[in-house]
Design brief:
Low-confidence stretches: none
Number of helices: 2
Structural class: alpha+beta
Distance between the termini: 15 Å
Shape: globular
Strand content: 35-45%
Strand order of the largest sheet: 1-2-3-4
Number of strands: 8
Length: 158
């Protein structure tokens, strides 16, 4: 999740990060251990001053919405990449992501085709919370049969 606080001129990114450690086993059955921490990165730029940064660790609940949205991004990216070029419309992408029309997680805002590319803007919302993040997905369409590649970038308002 990336947010911007205009009053403090500060960007904040929240992300869960994991590391795998080899733990020496005293008993049979030991092995690698995964440790996950919720990290908050804050970057501020005040007039006449250089950028400053802060890094802090938070409770895992702080990262849960961002982790859920990251999963939604991967699903959307995969589906957009595999869609036939003709279906890459606002309605077509919405149908591909939410065929039943009952998932509040995906809100396709626009799909624009220009110069062999389709750009899709989607507001992705974490289930169980009111947290959302807008993403722009870009996919080339020239001469493909539905086997393109899609990029995903978080953006400010859709």
């Amino acid at each position: 999740m990336i947010t911007y606080d205009a009053s403090h001129r500060e960007f904040t990114a929240t992300a869960a990060r994991s590391a795998l450690y080899d733990e020496e086993a005293l008993l049979p059955g030991g092995g690698p251990v995964r440790v996950t921490r919720c990290i908050v990165f804050a970057y501020a730029h005040r007039p006449g001053q250089p950028w400053t940064s802060r890094v802090s660790e938070r409770d895992g609940d702080v990262c849960r919405p961002g982790t859920a949205i990251a999963g939604l991004v991967r699903i959307a990216q995969t589906r957009i990449a595999s869609m036939p070029a003709g279906d890459l419309t606002r309605a077509g992408v919405q149908e591909a992501l939410d065929p039943t029309g009952r998932l509040p997680s995906y809100d396709v805002r626009s799909a624009v085709r220009t110069a062999g590319l389709v750009t899709v803007s989607i507001l992705l919302s974490s289930p169980d919370t009111a947290v959302g993040q807008c993403y722009r997905f870009t996919r080339p369409v020239a001469g493909d049969g539905g086997q393109g590649s899609a990029t995903a970038v978080p953006v400010s308002p859709c």
